[in-house]
Amino acid sequence: MHTTAELTVDAAAIAHNTRMFSERTAGQLMAVLKADGFGHGSLAPLVLANGADWLGVTSIAEAMTLRAEAPAAPLLSWLNPLDADYEAAIRADVDLAVSSMRQLRFVAAAASRARRAARVHLHLDVGMNRDGAPRGEWAALCEMARLWQAQGSIDVVGVMGHLSSASDPTSPETDRERMIFDNGVRVARRRGLSPRIRHLAASAATLTRPDTHYELSRVGAGLYGIDPSRTVALRPALTLTAPVVSVRRVPRGSGVGYGHTYTTSSETTLALLPLGYGDGLPRTASGRAFVQLRRRRYPVVGLFSMDQIVVDVGNDGIQPGERATVFGPGTSGEPTVAEWADWAGTLEHDIVVGVGARVHRVDRRTIPAAAAASAAIPQPTGLPEPIAPPEPSGPPTSPAVPALARSTDRPTGSDRALPRRKKNCAAI
């Protein structure tokens, strides 16, 4: 008998979802594996074996971990501070998104130390007002990038943006932001840049707005069975269960938990499960959530505690050692991640990434041996320690400095900017 809560990852579901998105997008597919694969763990070999062309994460630290799992896969990191270890990323052939002229100077300086050109994706803020270069600074950023590219420090391979309202297929914001993005690409080209990869769509737009696909779509939540647009029957990949550790009979009028926010309306049995908000269950779902035992739903009662929740199981004879399903794919009537998000007033993403480290992970994945062997090659050693450089100087005024060397052990430059694949884009 298991004595802890368990989170089971269904690799077959992730493989199915990856294949579906690979067929759905008109261009190539980037599997977004940030935040430990949205809480699902190490997935690079699995998604690459099932149709993903690129991998994407936010930080360089995450990218270096993925590089160990997939040495040859195109890999992008798009959210880094000025003092990030750009040199190590460049040496590992990690593409870098750049959102400001100041950041570009740091990347170019790191490329000089690495003696390799940095592969750069210029990031335009099309409407989110968070990451990405503001439109008023975009032309100047493109001009600076042109100068650094002429010098040989960088190779501008892409332009990227992020849509604010793609979860609503009818939102006029998507049309407006796509026009801003297209204009940004035109500005880059007028400044002498030739970005070969444009990417704007995430999961929702990949499903509902083919006009935003361009050469590459970035899909994160959808790989794990979360559809922000709620238009496609994806397969959820997580199941969270916990054992009943104790039961007790209580009379009518018994208060439960802190503040007695729940009082029993009749004599009943209360079952205790050993997980709570310390394990990622949102306390805002108190008084709303259900779990499943014996293929029947029972209410979670009282306020959630850090380490435990209480379930009113009535008179059904539930015993210690029986296992409750907190959430799962819903195929057997159990609560789903989407329901938990509704009960908590949050996003499904919040539920899956929030499951804590105390919860035991059970990894049910079956990767073909050949695919796993080809993707999971040990990481090359000898990368330099992080360097915190002084503020770099501005871009050169002429291309007099010799072009920096490029790596020869992984695809670079146009080798990674593959032509669009012909895909079956029929509705799924």
UniProtKB/TrEMBL annotation:
Active site: K34, Y258
EC number: 5.1.1.1
Family designation: Belongs to the alanine racemase family.
Record-level Gene Ontology MF annotations: alanine racemase activity; pyridoxal phosphate binding
Name recorded for this polypeptide: Alanine racemase
Biased composition (Pro residues): 381-399
Positions of the UniProt region annotated as Disordered: 372-428
EC primary class: isomerase
Annotated positions binding substrate: R130, M306
Record flagged with keyword Chaperone: no
Gene Ontology process terms (BP): D-alanine biosynthetic process; peptidoglycan biosynthetic process
Domain Alanine racemase C-terminal: 237-364
Recorded catalytic activity of this chain's protein: L-alanine = D-alanine
Lineage of the species this protein comes from: Bacteria, Bacillati, Actinomycetota, Actinomycetes, Micrococcales
Pathway: Amino-acid biosynthesis; D-alanine biosynthesis; D-alanine from L-alanine: step 1/1
Cofactor(s) listed in the protein's UniProt record: pyridoxal 5'-phosphate
Record keywords: Isomerase, Pyridoxal phosphate
Ranges annotated as biased composition (Basic residues): 419-428
A GO CC term assigned to this protein in UniProt: cytosol
Superkingdom of source: Bacteria
Keyword Cytoplasm: no
